[in-house]
Specification:
about 800 residues, Carb-bd-like_fold, globular, six-stranded mixed beta sheet, Plug_dom_sf, 4 helices, 22-stranded antiparallel beta barrel, 2 domains, Maltoporin, Chain A, carbohydrate binding, single chain
């Protein structure tokens, strides 16, 4: 916060004296929009500032300090050109430069070197974009670590993603739904190295084109893929340590010609880490008791991720592609805990427990896609067919023994849990973009998806030294869900106004079948999801936007399983097959100043909200946790994106999110209302130093907030990073330290009815990471091919 304020003060202290205007055109005199216009010092050609020319080809630089400059204009597919040197001083405060004419480049264009630094957080087309590959702090981490630094994102005690105060964000990978939730989704995010991520898009108000799932919006993780011609790639190596060490290694390859693009990558890692949990429970009754659980879990995560694909260019307008991706990972945990139990303030017994977990989970998915441009007006058609299978094999033993002070003889129990979970996904979708003219177009499409999960949960109890199947505790649960969807979007541009109207319809059919209980919970429902957006450009510097959307969040597959999962002797989790989907209405008003400063105000209301709830039996001392529907919740959000550039070598990105959450947790047995205001502040300071050195300071602060029945205490973290580039910027070395103060943790409490508990979870967040990346191969870009590749990068699954 101090650095942000200091940076702001520096801006106001500078003496601003000049304004520069210039226009870019083609050689025939036609305006050339979106040209890179770079203001440089004459002395060393260093970059002062860069801008994009407007639709009319004009460009303006304000508040330019005294000095001698020249301007360079570049655009892919055109030869670059520059102005003569000019001076900004007291006598030349308003400089109108001659028009810069750019001619089309020939096929023999050799290379384009991109040197501009992307900010870690920026706003594009209504979405918040995290440029992960430009961040020093992301090195050595995972997708889950990066999301913790994303604006408006919070991670709860079970690694679930909360976006702008709401759980239920849809996670996509390269534009594809993961269809995973809960622990399976957390494992996927932990297995994806940050070095393999290019950007993360956060879309809080998606259009009707996207699946309606995800009440708080969509988080799309885009992995790295190059569009450079020839054979090229990169190798990355990383290692680090906290309490336990870890490493990761990966290779990314690309072979691109005029007719095809073949690409693939492989990543391997072994990550050691830990989790500690402190859980204090006050239990009332005839004899009040106090349970104080202290748990330490040593964990290791081994990942093997791969992706291979091919795009074949039938013509310059038509492309077909295939993609295969997957992973074969494992998660191990050795947990040890003890729970002192006091009665009337005096210790009377202690529960000792140990868990042994060996979890292997794998995934393989295939995608076939086609995209074609049918005419010069921009009519496009695309098609995708997907098939994926996830398999999760778990082996877990839970041993516990009770030690009584008055009778020091341990009473030992043990259970063996061997759940096998399989998820099979099939989907087909097609999209059509139909322009009527340059200002009006319609988008339409359909999607059919089918998901089947088979959860076979087996419990064995230790009797007389042997494990015997516990029939009453084991079960098999099969869940199937089919969704038939269609949408239409109408887009219209009137001068400086963009209007978009959309409607999506989804027919859902589901069947939750407990094989053990021989019972079905079937549902069939049709929903309509309208969306609307309005963007008004007031001037070159001012823009406002208004949007609305309705979303749905269906219950997690595993949470529908009606059987009990044992955490320990006194804590259970139970599934709920009767949960209903949540429905969220969200409206957002945004204001953008100079295409970089953004303020957004939003309101959302969620009906049938799903929250974790708990019931405590004061006689058996058992607390049972489960998810269930409640009446509704309201979230008011204000977000600010404030980039600051005190000097050309110092870039500051600030993001502030304020939430007001109100929960109406009410039904025939519960009447609980909670509300709070929460603040999330994130800042990243990047210092570009001579000789290709770079230094970064980052931090975040999260104020107290409420999540359902939990009241969460504040947390914060500070990180440092340094980067050095070698071999003409083909080699990059990064060193960073995360969570220096060791304050990134989860602290929360729940007090209602007979529940009175406090939770404190800690993870291995403080660590040192060293990463190495080497880019090799052909780095030439052919202009003719690259102009077409811009749309290809937008292809789903590419």
């Amino acid at each position: 916060m101090f650095l942000a304020i200091a940076g702001t003060g520096t801006i106001y202290a500078q003496h601003v004296s000049g304004k520069i205007t210039v226009k870019t055109t083609e050689t025939n005199g036609q305006p050339l929009p979106f040209t890179n216009v770079l203001l440089r010092h004459v002395k060393d050609s260093s970059l002062v500032k860069g801008e994009l020319s407007s639709q009319e080809g004009s460009c303006t630089f304000d508040k330019v300090t005294e000095g001698k400059y020249f301007i360079e204009a570049t655009l892919m597919g055109y030869t670059s050109t520059s102005t003569s040197a000019f001076t900004i001083d007291a006598s030349h405060q308003l400089v109108q430069l001659p028009t810069l004419s750019l001619s089309q480049a020939s096929k023999t264009l050799q290379a384009v070197n991109v040197t501009a630094q992307k900010p870690f957080i920026e706003r594009k087309n209504g979405a918040t974009v995290l440029n992960v590959e430009s961040s020093l702090a992301a090195s050595g981490g995972t997708a889950l670590d990066v999301l913790k630094r994303a604006p408006g994102v919070q991670i709860d005690k079970d690694d679930n993603v909360i976006l702008q105060g709401n759980q239920g964000a849809t996670i996509m990978l390269d534009g594809k739904l993961t269809y995973l939730s809960g622990e399976q989704l957390a494992n996927l995010l932990r297995s994806l190295p940050a070095e393999n991520i290019a950007t993360i898009e956060i879309i809080t108000s998606p259009s009707a084109k996207y699946d309606a799932a995800g009440k708080s919006g969509i988080i799309n993780i885009k992995t790295k893929k190059t569009i450079i011609t020839g054979i090229n790639g990169s190798i990355n190596l990383g290692a680090g340590a906290g309490k336990y060490g870890f490493y990761n290694a990966g290779i990314n390859l690309n072979w691109r010609t005029e007719k095809f693009n073949a690409f693939g990558n492989y990543n391997k890692g072994d990550r050691g880490f830990f989790q500690t949990r402190y859980l204090a429970r006050h239990i009332q009754g005839d004899v009040p008791q106090f349970f104080e659980l202290n748990a330490f879990n040593r964990r290791s995560f081994k990942n093997n991720n791969y992706k291979v694909g091919l795009d074949y260019f039938l013509t310059s307008k038509h492309t077909i592609g295939v993609l295969m991706r997957g992973y074969d990972n494992s998660f191990n945990q050795d947990g040890f805990n003890h729970t002192p139990i006091s009665s009337n303030g005096k210790l009377d017994s202690t529960l000792y427990a140990g868990t042994y977990v060996r979890n292997n989970f794998s995934n393989v998915s295939f995608n076939l896609n086609y995209k074609g441009q049918l005419d010069t007006l921009g009519t496009e058609i695309s098609f995708d067919a997907d098939w994926a299978r996830f398999k999760d094999n778990n082996y877990m033993t839970l041993n516990d023994s009770m030690y009584y002070v008055v009778n020091p003889v341990r009473n030992t129990h043990a259970i063996l849990n061997r759940p096998i979970n399989e998820v099979t996904i099939r989907s087909v979708k097609a999209d059509l973009i139909l322009p009527f003219n340059k200002t009006t177009k319609m988008e339409t499409g359909f999607k059919i998806s089918s998901v089947k999960t088979d959860n076979n949960l087996r419990y064995d109890s230790l009797l007389n030294g042997k494990y015997v199947n516990a029939i009453t505790q084991s079960n098999q649960f099969v869940y199937t869900e089919d969704v038939y969807a269609a949408y239409a979007i109408f887009k219209k541009t009137i001068h400086n106004t963009d209007i978009q109207l959309g409607l999506r319809a989804e027919q859902t059919k589901s069947d939750g079948y407990s094989v053990t209980l021989q019972s079905h919970v079937k549902r069939s429902y049709l929903d309509f999801f309208p969306s609307f957006s309005f963007d008004q450009k007031l001037s070159e510097s001012h823009k406002i936007g208004l949007n609305y959307s309705k979303r749905i969040s269906r219950p997690n597959y595993g949470d529908l399983n009606p059987f009990v999962f044992y955490i320990d002797k006194y804590n259970y989790f139970k599934g709920n097959p009767y949960m209903l989907p949540e429905y969220t209405h969200k409206a957002e008003l945004s204001y953008t100043f100079k295409q970089k400063y953004v303020m957004a105000v939003s309101y959302s209301m969620t009906k049938n909200i799903v929250l974790e709830y708990m019931v405590q039996n004061d006689t058996t001392k058992v607390t049972t946790y489960y998810d269930r529907n409640f009446e509704r919740s309201y979230v008011y959000n204000v977000s600010l994106t404030i980039p600051i550039d005190p000097f050309k070598w110092w870039n500051i990105t600030n993001n502030i999110n304020g939430n007001y959450n109100y929960y109406n947790i009410k039904d025939t047995t519960v009447n609980l209302k909670t509300n709070t205001f929460g603040l999330n502040y994130q800042t990243t300071h990047t210092f570009t130093l001579p000789d290709d050195w770079k230094f970064e300071v980052n931090g975040y602060y999260e104020s107290p907030f409420v999540w359902g029945v939990y009241k969460i205490k504040p947390s914060y973290a500070i990180g440092l990073g340094v980067q050095k580039q070698l071999m003409n910027k083909k080699m990059t070395i990064k060193l960073n330290v995360s969570d220096i103060t060791n304050r990134e943790q989860f602290r929360g409490s729940a007090k209602f009815e007979n529940i009175d508990m406090y939770i404190n979870n800690r993870w291995q967040n403080r660590r040192v990471n060293l990463a190495f990346t080497w880019n090799f191969g052909n780095s030439n870009i052919k202009a003719a091919r690259d102009r077409e590749a811009g749309s290809e990068q937008q292809r789903v699954g590419g």
